[in-house]
TrEMBL record:
Keyword Glycoprotein: no
Record-annotated EfeO-type cupredoxin-like domain positions: 43-150
Transmembrane segments: 35-55
Keyword Acetylation tagged: no
Pfam families in the cross-refs: Cupredoxin_1 (PF13473)
Region (Disordered): 1-31
Record organism: Caldinitratiruptor microaerophilus
Protein name: EfeO-type cupredoxin-like domain-containing protein
Keywords: Membrane, Transmembrane, Transmembrane helix
Length: 160
């Protein structure tokens, strides 16, 4: 058996250089490799946090929508409504009071409209909303995320 760092041995004129232990003598990752892995992970997380919910082309505007809320985010996180027409939103918080990072509470916030709905754990809340102007209205939850919306806790209403 040949260990890395040893000189090859000869046996009957055959040089033995391979074996199960080819490679660096120290199998631990190098500092450069660790740094590269860390940077790749940071870039992936930054991309996920920056991503915005996408509307599927052709989705018809709705007059009522049930939005499920839990630590995974809002589902659905994007939908269309008619500008100037009422839409009934039902928010269903599926988190229990024992969840860490907010105790199961969530908020439905549309900052641009001043909408702020507090959702207690395992509760449902229904309200009517009229978006008078066409446009993109982003909503989020800032509970348990240091006052900022978490990566998954974002969504968009598109008024047409």
């Amino acid at each position: 058996m040949i260990r890395a760092g040893r000189a090859p041995s000869t046996c009957s004129g055959v040089v033995v250089t391979g074996g199960a232990h080819d490679g660096p003598a120290d199998p631990r990752p190098t500092a450069r490799r660790r740094l590269g892995t860390l940077l790749a992970a940071v870039l992936v997380l930054a991309g996920l946090m920056a991503s915005k919910p996408a509307l599927v082309p052709g989705d018809a505007p709705v007059t009522a929508m049930r939005i499920r809320v839990d630590t995974a985010g809002f589902r659905p996180s994007a939908f269309r409504v008619r500008a100037g027409k009422p839409v009934v939103l039902t928010l269903a918080n599926e988190d229990n009071p024992f969840r860490s990072g907010g105790g199961g509470y969530h908020r439905f916030v549309i900052e641009s409209l001043g909408v702020r709905k507090v959702l207690e754990p395992l509760s449902t809340q229904t309200f009517q909303l009229v978006l008078m102007e066409p446009g993109r209205y982003e909503f989020s939850c800032d509970v348990g995320h240091g006052g900022m919306p978490g990566a998954a806790m974002r969504g968009v209403l598109m008024a047409e």
